[in-house]
Structures are given as structure tokens and as C-alpha cells.
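Study both lines:
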Amino acid sequence: MHPRLLTLAFLALPACLSSTMPLLPEPAPAALRADVPLDVVTKLAGAQDPLAVHGSFWQFSELEHAVARAVLVGAAPWAEAHRAERERGWQIQVDLIKSDASLADGQARASLGVRATLRAVVGQVYIAQTQAFCMTAGLANSEAQARDVVLRCISNLSRSVSGWLDGVQP
């Protein structure tokens, strides 16, 4: 092989490789899950996991787990306030229906969409359903900064779902 072609191949190689980073660097706290009368179940329904960041070679894994954790933390006060109404608790099924992330000119953008369905655990009795969407942008000169943009979007989704729950009277 010609030395120039070999050099060009080595220079182009990083563009062909992807770097996958988990959105949650540590596992979800087990103590929170055991104490809260709420189960959060996630399902990919159009979203991608890992989430590829278009315009870069980055990908973020554990999208479902990050969304489940954020919804669990955000919805815990509602579940506690309504504990007496359902001894065995509540379930929120969160379908991830949309996911997109991109990087251009040092700016990361993330958009996510979910459909959340609230049910009683016993009998899986349907109570209510909503959809929530977020779009977040921020400076990102590194993979960690781009991850922070995606996590802010997930946090916004969690606030939307918990705000919706505040208006639900089971």
C-alpha cells in the first residue's frame, strides 16, 4: 500500500469508530426503589438506545435506565402522597417514542419524547396517560458535555411527567 494512502487511512479511522458512553455512570440507588410505592417500566417505542449523536462519533447508552431513574425520582412525591389509595402502589409505563441528538459548531442538541401511562399495580388498572417532549441545547466541546445536554433533556421530561401526575387524581 502506498504510504500516503496508509497515512490517510489512519487519519480517517477515528471518524469511523464510535465511542459509547453510558448516560448514568453509576447504578440507580436501590434504596429509593424499595421505599417508593411506584414501579417505572420503560420500553423503546421508536427511540434509539444507544442514542447516536449525529455530527460526531459519540453514542450514549442506558437511555431507558436514565429516563426510568429520572421519572422515578420525579414521581416519588406523588406516589408517596397517594400511597394510602393503593397499598401495592402504582406503575408508570414510559414508552420512549422519540430520540435525537446532534452536534454542530460546538453545540449539542437533544430531543426526546415519551408516552407515560399510569396504572395501579394490582390488576394493571388504567388510570391516565400523557405525552411529554423536550428539546435542549448547550455548548459541548467534549463527550461529557454532550452527555450533560442529554441528561438535562431527560430531567425536563421527568419534570413534565411529575407535573402531569400532580394533576391526576386516581
In short: The two ends are 70 Å apart (CA to CA). The chain has four helices and seven strands. The first strand starts at residue 19 and ends at 22.
